């Protein structure tokens, strides 16, 4: 019978995987996964042989670009910021089922081209073991571009990454998962700056009530609110529901629904 691998063993395995590289760049979003990967890479390879790379786009949730800079400063890593506008890409704004794959491949190819000019030929991504069992079209792009996934390769799950991040005193170990705002727009419905701004306003309003980690999915004149499972009961209070409904109506959203499944919170 195979004995379970301890978290310490997985961390050592991660360090050994990273140490096989001479120099490496880390695609950094400011989230828990990429922050841990950047921290360990910086510790193992050193300052001169590590760099974080970040895509600054109009699709970022509020506060994400600031979070990336804070993470890089805390770790002491260099940061390459690449300003991109997927809203100018027709294949992206058409929002086909393979949108995420198309976008990820284009962004990471741009990363690779710019990193090559800095003599960085290896790019690593913060995909974890749990991600491999989920529907993530962007993973195909990583495989095609030969982007390395050290966290997944070392067998680290999201929960274990949070634990390691806490052990290393990384301030975002308990940060809620985030994602590109385009993921809130129904497939085959055109993505526009107007829709992205609407999603930002809706989610910002919900966060005023403390509904962190929420998602607002837009389809025509309707919205589906996804909250953490533990927040659904509080949302059901008449006063809160009415305020949210009124505000969304002000945004010209006529139908407002809530997903009763609830999103997963921080598993820790």
Written account of the structure:
The protein has 268 residues and is an alpha/beta fold. It has two domains: 7-167, 3-Layer(aba) Sandwich (Rossmann fold), CATH 3.40.50.620; 192-258. It has helices spanning 7-19, 32-45, 64-75, 90-93, 99-116, 138-144, 150-153, 158-167, 193-208, 232-235, 238-250, and strands at 24-27, 50-56, 78-83, 123-124, 215-219, 222-226, 255-258. The strands form two sheets. The chain has a four-stranded parallel β-sheet, sandwiched between helices. Helix 5 packs parallel to helix 6 (138-144). The longest helix has 18 residues, at 99-116. The two termini are 27 Å apart.
Uncertain parts: none
**Could you name the CATH homologous superfamily of the largest domain?**
HUPs
How many separate domains make up the residues?
2
Question: Which structural class is indicated by helix and strand composition?
Answer: alpha/beta
Provide the CATH architecture of the largest domain: 3-Layer(aba) Sandwich
User: What is the number of beta strands?
Assistant: 7
Radius of gyration: 19 Å
Overall morphology:
globular
| Strand order in the largest sheet | 3-2-1-4
Rounded average pLDDT: 94
Ends apart, CA distance between termini? 27 Å
| Main sheet properties | 4 strands, parallel
Please work out how many helical segments DSSP would assign.
11
What letter string, H or E per element, gives the SSE order?
A: HEHEHEHHEHHHHEEHHE
Tell me the fraction of residues in β-strands, as a range: 5-15%
* CATH fold category name of the largest domain: Rossmann fold
The helix content, as a percent range, equals: 40-55%
């Amino acid at each position: 019978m195979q004995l379970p691998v301890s978290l310490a063993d997985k961390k050592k395995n991660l360090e050994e995987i990273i140490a096989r590289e001479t120099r490496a760049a880390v695609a950094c979003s400011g989230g828990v996964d990429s922050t841990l990967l950047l921290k360990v890479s910086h510790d193992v390879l050193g300052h001169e042989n590590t760099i974080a790379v970040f895509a600054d786009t109009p699709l970022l949730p509020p506060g994400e670009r600031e979070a990336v800079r804070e993470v890089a400063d805390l770790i002491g890593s260099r940061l390459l910021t690449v300003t991109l506008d997927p809203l100018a890409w027709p294949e992206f704004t058409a929002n086909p089922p393979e949108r995420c794959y198309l976008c990820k491949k284009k962004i990471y190819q741009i990363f690779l081209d710019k990193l090559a000019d800095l003599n960085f030929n290896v790019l690593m991504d913060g995909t974890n073991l749990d991600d491999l069992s989920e529907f993530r079209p962007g993973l195909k792009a990583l495989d095609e571009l030969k982007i390395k996934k050290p966290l997944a390769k070392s067998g680290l799950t999201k929960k274990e990454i949070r634990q390691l991040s806490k052990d290393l005193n990384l301030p975002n170990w308990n940060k809620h998962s985030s994602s590109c705002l385009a993921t809130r727009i129904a497939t085959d419905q055109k993505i526009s700056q107007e829709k992205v701004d609407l999603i930002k306003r809706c989610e910002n309003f919900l966060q005023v009530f403390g509904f962190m980690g929420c998602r607002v999915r837009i389809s025509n004149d309707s919205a589906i609110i996804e909250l953490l499972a533990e927040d659904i009961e509080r949302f059901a209070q008449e006063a809160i529901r009415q305020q949210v409904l009124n505000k969304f109506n002000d945004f010209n959203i006529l139908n407002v629904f809530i997903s009763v499944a609830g999103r997963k919170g921080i598993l820790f």
